Amino acid sequence: MPDTEEVLRKIFHQLPETQQQTLLDYAEFLSQRYATEAVPVAEYPLDISRPQEESVVKAVRRLSKKYPMLDSKKLFEKTSSFMMRNLIHGEESASLIDEMEVFFEEHYQAYRSERSKD
Fold this sequence. Notes:
- This protein folds into 2 domains: 4-33, no CATH class; 56-117, no CATH class.
- The longest helix is centred in the C-terminal third of the chain and has 25 residues, at 93-117.
- The protein is elongated, with a radius of gyration of 20 Å.
- The protein is built from 5 helices and no strands.
- With 118 residues, it is mainly alpha-helical.
């Protein structure tokens, strides 16, 4: 299935300028009509400790909860590769989880840096 944003973008660019404005007006209307109150997200990592024994899949869940401010879509490809390295290639969980901890922390630092620019 094609990416809905990409489909919308293609349709938008195929329309004449007046129809583009109509589409934008309708999108703004829908946005206001169906707007929901934003759920506050923690600005700092939550205090969720790493357990003694943990699978890579559980570590991904834990780290996602620990860093709720990070965009999971941006992390998906790399976290999937960690799981594949463990499940398919048989790499040791503990060392992969160590790498994942660093990966999430680096993304958090980039998030903070980006936020400080705003």
